[in-house]
Amino acid sequence: MDIFQARKFASQEGWLSQTPEAFRNAILDKSLFKSFEPGAALYSIGDLEGGIYCLLRGGLRVSIAAGENGPYLAHLFRPGIWVGEAPLIKGVPRMLGLTAAGQTDTLTVPLHALQDILRRDPAAWRHIALLAFTNSELAVNVVSDLLVRDHSQRLVAVLMRLGNCSNPGLPGASGIEIAVSQEELAAMSNVARTTVNSTLRQLQATGAVEITYRRIKIVAPEKLRAMLIEEKV
Predict the structure, then answer these.
(1) Are 182 and 131 within one domain?
(2) 105 backbone dihedrals φ, ψ, rounded to 5°
């Protein structure tokens, strides 16, 4: 993927695709293409400044830390996500850490470039607000998943979020591979490792998922969704 392909992808996916053409072009003109090796940090919790990133290819592991606790793996970003707006909005240290899950390509817009765009067009702050709102929605979904009482159904909710298939209207929602170990999934779902193992085996027996080494493939998201509907009823 070259810079032109990267910018085309970024303009058609996620947050930036929902913004006006003039703002979209201003962001893309300032964007830089960056690749990361597996395990490399895009930024770490506590970093003082930095720009925003669009994930083009690969995946991003999201770590959080509250106070002296953590860091904990909380989520996996899939291509199309834009993230990293906190230093721009409030000038606060990074609250999340991002590391590459596999070979990963991104577009990044440096902080000074974002500030320049906003100085020239203060009304563009509303587009940054849209990005913050979009990522806040994801944070609410994370909390909502962890409030599911039944541990097996909580795991299913997390699995569907990681696969980006909670919404039945999303295209291509089946056949999604999630690069996560069972131990990591247990931590993200706040369940025991044995619960993950037994639940995944049950799901595999029903044809809902396929399990391989450090990967889980969602084959039939409608079956997972049915489990959550039953829990709500």
Answers:
(1) no
(2) -115, 140
Show which of 117, 145, 173 is a domain's final residue.
Answer: 145
Given 98, 128, 145, which residue is the final one in a domain?
145
Which DSSP state fits 171?
Answer: T
Model confidence, pTM: 0.88
Domain total of the chain: 2
- Maximum distance among all Cα pairs of the chain, rounded to whole angstroms: 58
- 197 and 126 within one domain: no
Q: Which domain covers residue 176, as residue numbers?
A: 148-232
To the nearest 10 degrees (0 to 180), the angle between helices 151-162 and 221-232 is 140
In this prediction, residue 226 has a pLDDT band, given cuts at 50, 70 and 90, of: confident
User: Tell me: the pLDDT tens digits for 156-198?
Assistant: 999 999 998 876 555 445 578 999 999 999 999 999 999 999 9
- Distance CA(178)–CA(186), nearest Å, equals 14
Tell whether 100 and 173 lie within a shared domain: no
Query: What is the distance between the alpha carbons of residues 81 and 172, in angstroms, rounded to a whole number?
Result: 16
The predicted structure's pLDDT at residue 171: 46
Q: With contact defined as beta carbons under 8 Å apart, do 203 and 220 qualify? A: no
Token pair for 79: 């291509």
pLDDT, tens digit (0-9, with 9 covering 90-100), for 22-76: 999 999 999 999 999 999 999 999 998 899 999 999 999 999 987 667 788 999 9
**Polymer length in residues for the chain:** 233
Query: Do 156 and 207 share a domain, yes or no?
Result: yes
